[in-house]
Amino acid sequence: MDDLIFRGIIIKQSNYGDAHRMLTIFTESDGIIKAVRYGVRGKKTSNAAAFQLLCYGDFKLRPSRGDIMTASSADILDGFYPVSEDIVKLSLLSYLADITYVMLGEANPDRRILSLFLNTVYAAAYLKEPYLKLKTVYELKLMCAVGFMPRLGECGVCGEKANYFSPDGGCMVCRAHRNADAVKISAAAAAIMRHIMSCPDKKMLAFSVKDEAYYNELSTVTEKYVSAQADKEFASLSYFKAITNDLH
């Protein structure tokens, strides 16, 4: 079969055998797909840099009988190389790639989510944005894009004033109707979340807060929401937290 061109970004990679690498690529046309690059870790391999995590470009892939394609070459548009030099950025984007994979699944094309992910990778590589801001904004935008927009008004049970967020219910709850997993959230933090949800995707990072402590509060809310809706704990999130804790 002839090779096909897929534009996308490598969101996961794993080595196997002596020289091969399994790639998970988030493509424009086919969503998240998998491909193997044989011999990429060998001494005589050309273009090996094009098959690294977070490389974005045009990948030439050959279909096979199974679900995994064979990667033959790639033309890279951006390697986002500053990320590879910062372990915190790399661990954060690995986590964001994990939640994207889980929430979207394979072979589900979604150019909006791809654009959200690429914009976040670009910001991590080239802009001076706080890590937790990037994390919170992407988590919330992703959840909205996959159909899990949280309800941030009155209590989702009784309709009264609420200042807790229920990750399981995806809504605000009052003190009387909170459960063990409910997270207290300030009015200011809830307002920031509403802004993120309503703003155009291209301007999702075009805001600032007076106190960056709000990002800590927001980050707790959004990561718990993702975990509850995905019904999964993410090891990559634990790793990101461990690294950031070590830096403080």
What value does the average pLDDT take? Answer: 94
The helix count comes to 7
Q: In total, how many beta strands?
A: 8
In percent, how much strand structure appears in the residues?
Answer: 15-25%
Unreliable segments (pLDDT under 50, ≥5 consecutive)?
none
For the record, give the distance between the C-alpha atoms at the N and C termini, rounded to a whole number: 53 Å
Biggest sheet layout = 5 strands, mixed, barrel
Inertia-based shape: elongated
Name the helicity range.
25-40%
Order of helices and strands: EEEEEHHHHEEEHHH
Alpha-beta classification:
alpha+beta
Indicate the radius of gyration in whole angstroms. 20 Å
Description:
By secondary structure, the protein is of the alpha+beta class. The protein is 38% helix and 22% strand. The chain has helices at 81-84, 87-104, 111-126, 131-145, 187-198, 213-230, 235-246, and strands at 4-16, 20-27, 31-37, 56-62, 68-78, 164-166, 171-173, 183-184. Strand 6 and strand 7 form a beta hairpin. Helix 2 runs parallel beside helix 4 (131-145). The protein is elongated and about 65 Å long.
